[in-house]
Amino acid sequence: MSLERVFSVEFSPPRNPEGVEKLRATRAELARVAPAYYSVTFGAGGSTREGTLSTTLEIHGAGLHAVPHISCIASTRASVRELLAAYRESGIRHLVALRGDAPSGVAGSAGELRHAADLVELVRAEFGSWFRIEVAAYPEIHPQARSPAEDVQNFVRKVRAGADSAITQYFYNDDAYFRFVEEVARLGCSVPIVPGIMPITNFTQLARFSDNCGAEIPRWIRRRLESYGDDRASIRAFGADVVAALCERLLAQGAPGLHFYTMNMAAPTLEIWRRAHLPVPQR
């Protein structure tokens, strides 16, 4: 029996009317490859709460599988409960549950729920099995983890709290992903862990993101990207080759799908989709 793989995409809620129109166009382009679902991020401390809600409901209203992110930092149980109830009332049945980041100037432990496992427990206690719950995984170790062992234990804690599956932070070293999967499996954790995939389109931006989230850019990739300078076409072509090859290796070795961080752009993801020979529905 073949493994049923899940291929999904992620958006950020737009910040202005122009962004709304751009995201609609991006969504229409990506619909050509029929992603299993479209997730929508949640800003630090809930800063995009209303944007996440409205974007999710628009995607859902278009007949697509919309999956909102929800985080608990700087939130109360009541505010989280209210948001989850709004999603349930709208027929949303799938969430990405995260600890999230605190807004600038706010302590990271602010709020009544301190960890993603606490949020997962609340969802299960209040809403039972209504929601399918995704959580985050960090193959290259969460930047705030005190040790690799602690990071693995934190992940397992989220799963035991009631998570159904996980999406990883992006990475370019597939060995880190498979080692992480093996480590959590040894602890009895067998939920699907889907690799997060970040297209490479802008080296300066990618380096900044990677420094902030702890994702490693292997030296050979970094040096090649640096060598292209401002040649964006070469950066994109090289990036598409590297990431498509990564996707092929991940799937060949048993990854249960791929989740694309689109940065609200369709072309980079579609190019990787094409080069990696991912499924496209017949018309």
What is the gyration radius calculated from CA atoms?
Answer: 18 Å
Outline, from the CA principal axes? Answer: globular
User: What's the story with the biggest beta sheet?
Assistant: 8 strands, parallel, barrel
Helix count, per DSSP?
10
Mean pLDDT: 93
The CATH architecture comes to Alpha-Beta Barrel
Count of domains: 1
The poorly predicted ranges are none
Distance between the first and last residues' Cα: 26 Å
CATH class: Alpha Beta
CATH topology: TIM Barrel
Helix content: 40-55%
Number of strands: 8
Structure in words:
This protein is of the alpha/beta class. The chain starts with 5 loop residues before the first strand and ends in an 8-residue tail after the last helix. 41% of the residues are buried. The protein has one domain: TIM Barrel (Alpha-Beta Barrel), CATH 3.20.20.220. The chain is 46% helix and 15% strand. The chain is globular. The protein has an 8-stranded parallel barrel with strand order 1-2-3-4-5-6-7-8, surrounded by 4 helices.
Question: What brief labels describe this structure?
Answer:
globular; alpha/beta; 283 residues
Brief write-up:
Helix content is 46%, strand content 15%.
SSE layout and pairing:
Elements: E1 6-11, H1 17-30, E2 38-40, H2 49-61, E3 66-71, H3 77-89, E4 94-98, H4 116-127, E5 132-137, H5 148-161, E6 165-170, H6 174-186, E7 193-197, H7 203-213, H8 219-227, H9 232-252, E8 257-261, H10 267-275
Parallel strand pairs: 1-2, 1-8, 2-3, 3-4, 4-5, 5-6, 6-7, 7-8
